[in-house]
Each structure stands twice: as C-alpha cells, then as structure tokens.
Write a structure and sequence with these properties.
single chain; alpha/beta; TIM Barrel; about 40% helix
Length: about 290
C-alpha cells in the first residue's frame, strides 16, 4: 500500500501536530489491520517473546510484510488481572526506547499503547502518530490535553476495574464512551481524531465480551470509527477450552463478525492470517 511520507520526529517537534495517518487509512474504505507488538515480559499471550530489541524489531518488520496497516506497540501489559503491579514510568520507557525509533522508521503508522501521558508524549516525539489509551482518557488527567495539543488520533477504549456479571454491559460501554467524549471535548480533541474500542476482555465476563461484539453496531450511534481487538482473548477459551496460542480460529471468527457488525479497525497478534481472512471476506462480499 502506498503511503504518503511520514512526518519525522523533528517535523513533529516543530509543528506539534503530525500528519493524520488514521484518516488516510480510513479513507481506503476497508477494514484496517493493526498489528500488536508487546515489548513486555508479562502480556497474557506473548509476554516475553519480543522483550529483546532484536526480536521486537524483527516481529515489527514481519507484521509490515504481512500487511499490517498500523503497528501498536506497548511497554506495559494491560491484561486485566486484578492485583497486577503497575509498571513504573522508567521501566516502560526503557522497554520502548530501544525499539520504537527503529519501528517508526519502517514506514507504517505507529500507535503507542499506554495509559501514561508522559510515555505518549515521548513516543509522539519519536514519530508515533496515534495514542491508544485503554482507559479512554479517564486515568491520566494529562492524556486528553496531550492528545489535543498534538492533534493526533486517539483510541478510547472501554474498561472497568473488575467485571460485574450483573450489569448491562452495552449500557455501561455507552456511558463510559459518553464520559470519555465529554473529557475529549473539554480538552479540545477534534471529533474526527477519535476511535472507540469496546475493550473486549477488559472488565468483562466472557459472556459480556461476546455481547459487546454481537451488539457492536449499537456503538455506531456515536458516529465514530470502531476498533475491535478480540485476538486470543479469554472468552474464546470459555467457548472452546484453549490456551492463548491455540485461539487463532476463534479470533478470526470474532473479528469477521466484528467487521460485519461495523468495526473499521481490527487489532490482532496474527497479522497474516487476519489479513487473509479480511481480504477473502471482502472479495466474496463484493461478488454478491
């Protein structure tokens, strides 16, 4: 896919606003593939696999070759397990600084997966072009201001501290999005810079994660692009007992249905297989 020249870190530092990579991709009118790269020791599916800089950069190159439109890189595990100790700012930065500048140079947009505004600011200075906040601007009070000042796209994800099987999860997601969008508006974030993510597997029972995908079209009422990341998530194990690295078929099924229900962006570990699924489905659909 031909892409316009990416802004360099120096360009971003001078202008304060990088060119919008997400708008260019969404204009293609096809599902966008976001590849996951965790440079962490403890992520639920691939923790430790790409902790070494050489392996992380090699994986990033592989995902680009396989068709990733965006690379989403994170230095802190965001797996929703109660009791996990937060990663310090210094540790998160140390994991990222050895790989992010090189990965930015691969030529596809890079998203920084973090809940810390200081980490996001540094990553944007290095040339990242998207902020992916799994707490939807509701944890770090400086995140919304940063996104507004830099004029970059932001992924607002629904989250909860713990799952509650008694709640109406669709109503909870809608209320969360409304709060996040109010924060975004007050900070001055442009509406066309926002993507919504229902947060599959975060603060939800397996049943609630599946309801969020089944009812995804409900969230289109906000008039914003939707992102779904169901890759290797625990709800698949709830349907068919399986370890994370055995959940590719379930991931593909969930992502296909997500696209059918309105997802514009799919976030996944298995880029080649997901791209093939999306392209075959799109080709069959266009032949109707």
């Amino acid at each position: 896919m031909s892409m316009a020249r990416r802004s360099s870190p120096a360009d971003g530092a001078k202008s304060g606003v990088a060119a919008d990579p997400l708008a260019r991709l969404l204009a293609l009118k096809r599902p966008i593939m976001m590849g996951i790269l965790n440079v962490t020791p403890d992520s639920f599916s691939d923790g430790g696999q790409f902790q070494e800089p050489q392996s992380a950069i090699a994986q990033a190159r592989r995902m680009v070759t396989e068709g990733a439109d965006i690379l989403d890189i994170g230095g802190e595990s965001t797996r929703p397990y109660v009791g996990m100790a937060p990663v310090s700012l210094d540790d998160e930065m140390a994991r990222l600084e050895l790989v992010l500048p090189t990965i930015v140079g691969l030529g596809v947009p890079v998203s920084i997966d973090t809940i810390k505004a200081k980490v996001a600011a540094w990553a944007l200075d290095q040339g990242a072009g998207i902020v992916n906040d799994v707490w939807g601007l509701q944890r770090d009070p400086d995140m919304a201001r940063l996104v507004a000042e830099r004029g970059v796209p932001v992924v607002i994800m629904h989250n909860r501290d713990a799952a509650d099987p008694a709640i109406d999860i669709v109503a909870d997601i809608n209320a969360f999005f409304a709060r996040s969008l109010e924060i975004a508006t007050r900070a001055g974030i442009a509406r066309d810079k926002i993507v919504l993510d229902p947060g599959i597997g975060f603060g939800k029972t397996p049943e609630q994660s599946m309801i969020a995908i089944a009812k995804l079209a409900t969230f289109k009422s906000f008039g914003l692009p939707l992102l779904v990341g169901a890759s290797r998530k625990r709800f698949i194990n709830h349907v068919v007992p399986s370890e994370p690295d055995q959940r590719l078929p379930g991931s593909l099924a969930a992502h296909l249905l997500a696209v059918e229900n309105g997802a514009a962006i799919i976030r996944a570990h298995d880029v080649s297989e997901t791209v093939q699924m999306l392209r075959v489905a799109s080709t069959i659909r266009s032949s109707r």
